[in-house]
Amino acid sequence: MTAGGQAEGAGAGADPASARLPSRVAKLLSALFYGTCSFLLVLINKALLTTYRFPSPIVLGVGQMAVTIMILYVSKLNKIIHFPDFDKKIPTKLFPLPLLYVGNHISGLASTSKLSLPMFTVLRKFTIPLTLLLETIILGKQYSLNIIVSVFAIILGAFVAAGSDLAFNLEGYIFVFLNDIFTAANGVYTKQKMDPKELGKYGVLFYNACFMIIPTLIISVSTGDLRQKQEETFEQGFWSRGFHMSTSIPRGPINTSWFLLMYSTVLCSYYNSALTTAVVGAIKNVSVAYIGMLVGGDYIFSVLNFVGLNICMAGGLRYSFLTLGSQLKPKQPVEEENISQDLKV
User: Fold this and answer.
1) Spans of the chain, pLDDT less than 50
2) According to the model, what pLDDT value does residue 8 have?
3) CB 314 within 8 A of CB 157
4) pLDDT digits over 172-208, tens only?
5) Which pLDDT score is estimated for 78?
6) 250/255 Cα distance (integer angstroms)
7) CA quadruple 195, 86, 200, 193: dihedral sign
8) Nearest-5° Cα angle at 122, 118 to 124
């Protein structure tokens, strides 16, 4: 065989392998797609719950759980993601994560409806010190001085911003602190009780949604939340506004955006590393805090509040990248299950 033939044969042999590797364009576009969808979902949630006064965060949560189940199941069937099939041991392994999941989901939506986006983003940062406190007490973990300084900046900034919040809403503050507690407890419990590789991130998310969608719908019906949603939907003209909601699960923009978020998260993790997904999520949170000042119409600017918001955002970003840097070890890929949940807060 000639040298040219050898080169041609080698090139032909290399083609299938190179074809399986995602291109830089695919990596970049999937990361941008995830960041855009994640950002837009927050804005759409805010618009639906505040501007259009959608009456039921619980019904909204049921719709998003249904979309979560559908997306993850279809992705599993198409071998885009993997998680184990159901067996009778899974409920025992998961409990009480499904309860924390639904509490986290509903309290997050409820606080979004009561608070401006900048204050929601700032107060959600309390998940980080709560997580570190629980991990220190329960798991016995220790943290570097740099991490502690970053967490102190988050707390200081949040207190300054909250103390000068001219649009203070007690109910919103209660919901967002409950959301922080549910998120922190969920993360710490997962680390303490479960092997993350056993079910994986998507397996935990899928089975949490499966186990809680029916009980949450029953709660919505028994409390009259579902009927209130139906009545107010017609009274406030949601049909004419283009939302076209069914009797139980809201369709239209909110579920489309949740569908796209779930799909873009899977896509970004598929083409990139979990590290990239976490970094994009951290950058998105900063964007929401600042652009949220112009969206929703419920943020009242004050100099002290703005200073506190900046301190909190700077501390949060520093904490995120310090933590990500410590998890990124040479010659060892960062697995999605090992990314701290509070990095995406």
Assistant:
1) 1-19, 233-251, 331, 334
2) 43
3) yes
4) 999 999 999 998 888 787 776 665 567 777 888 888 8
5) 87
6) 7
7) negative
8) 115
Q: Considering only CA atoms, which of 48, 66, 199 is closest in space to residue 113?
A: 48
Closest CA to 268 of 290, 284, 291, 252: 284
What whole-number distance in Å separates Cα of residue 53 and Cα of residue 235? 11
Which residue's entry shows tokens 């911003």?
161
Query: Rounded to 5 degrees, what are φ and ψ at 332?
Result: -135, 110
Task: At 101, list the tokens.
Answer: 């999941």
Residue ranges with strand state E in 100-154: none
Residue 166 CA neighbour count, 13 Å, CB half: 9
What is the per-residue pLDDT for 205?
83
Amino acid in the structure at residue 117: L
Number of residues assigned to the chain: 345
**Is the pTM of the predicted complex or chain greater than 0.90?**
no
Report the C-alpha gap between 213 and 109 in whole angstroms.
16
Backbone phi, psi, residue 2, to 5°: -75, 165
Are 34 and 280 in contact by the 8 Å Cβ rule? The answer is yes
Helix axes 145-163, 303-327, angle to 10 degrees: 160
Residue type, 121: T
